[in-house]
Amino acid sequence: MAIKQRAKAEAGFSMSSMTDIVFLLLIFFLVTSTLINPNALKLLLPKSTNQISAKQQVSVSIKHYTDKNTFSFHINGNKKPVRVDEIEPRLQELLQESDDPTFSIYADKTVPIEQVVNMMNIGKRNKYKVILATSPE
User: Fold this and answer.
1) Is residue 123 part of a domain?
2) Is 32 inside any structural domain?
3) Is residue 124 situated within a structural domain?
């Protein structure tokens, strides 16, 4: 009596399980890479509803004149501009008696980030809290 095997093993390989594993690994690495976000400077950024936890005591405004590519700095909305080298002593004078010294930076959209960072560095050197003012959405 001859017994025949009807089912033979196929030599092919299905790649569908391998693509599932690669897809899951890709998602895992994308999620974990977005969780790593080092913040160099701690800033108090206002929400779009204009609610902030710290009240500003002094404001520094940076106006950019794009036609001449020059900048003017104003303290507390004063129309008379202040030279860059006078800003830090003025802030020290205005915030010296404060328990929680805080100042905000109001910058035009066209102001280069370098000018804003210079103001943030003044706050960091003097241990002031810095608020970067934005317009509501």
Assistant:
1) yes
2) no
3) yes
| Domain region containing 70 | 58-132
> What are the C-alpha distances in Å from 13 to residues 7, 17, 23, 25, 59?
17, 10, 19, 21, 68
Residue (of 116, 90, 96) closest to 105 by Cα position: 116
Give the chain's end-to-end CA distance (angstroms, integer): 86
Q: Is the pLDDT of residue 46 over 60?
A: no
Q: Does the pTM of the predicted model rise above 0.85? A: no
| pLDDT: which is higher, 24 or 31 | 24
| Confidence at residue 42, expressed as pLDDT on a 0 to 100 scale | 41
Q: What is the 3-state secondary structure (H, E, C) of 30-81?
A: HHHHHHCCCCCCCCECCCCCCCCCCCCCEEEEEEEECCCCEEEEEECCCCCC
CB 74 within 8 A of CB 82: yes
**Residue 137 within a domain:** no
* Number of structural domains found in the chain: 1
Residue 100 gets which letter from DSSP?
Answer: S
Q: For the domain that residue 124 is a member of, what is the CATH number?
A: 3.30.420.270
What does the pLDDT look like over 89-110, one tens digit per residue? 999 998 988 888 888 888 877 8
